[in-house]
Design a protein that fits this description.
Elements: E1 2-5, E2 10-13, E3 35-41, E4 44-49, E5 57-59, E6 65-67, E7 72-76
Antiparallel strand pairs: 1-7, 2-3, 2-6, 3-4, 5-7
Function: This protein is a component of the acetyl coenzyme A carboxylase complex; first, biotin carboxylase catalyzes the carboxylation of the carrier protein and then the transcarboxylase transfers the carboxyl group to form malonyl-CoA.
Pfam family, one: Biotin_lipoyl
Domain Lipoyl-binding: 1-77
Length: 77
């Protein structure tokens, strides 16, 4: 199992915009390099990517949650 950690402090978003579906949902397979969400810091958005591949992703942070740098966002099996 691997964890995907927040690279920056800010607000975590699971989709590219409010009217778009999430990048990934719980139970989805994930490949290394897949975008799983965005961190917004002072109106600037930074992609969060998976560093490892897996067959199942489980999010630990909800959409629009404030997160600190290094906080776990998701587990990947």
């Amino acid at each position: 199992m691997a964890q995907i950690l927040s690279p920056l402090p800010g607000t975590f978003y699971r989709s590219p915009s409010p009217d778009k579906p999430p990048y990934k949902v719980d139970g989805d397979a994930v490949a290394a390099g897949d975008v799983i969400g965005l961190i917004e810091v002072m109106k600037s958005f930074h992609e969060v990517t998976a560093e490892a591949s897996g067959t199942n992703i489980r999010f630990l942070a909800d959409n629009e949650d404030p997160v600190m740098a290094g906080a776990p966002l998701a587990d990947v099996d």
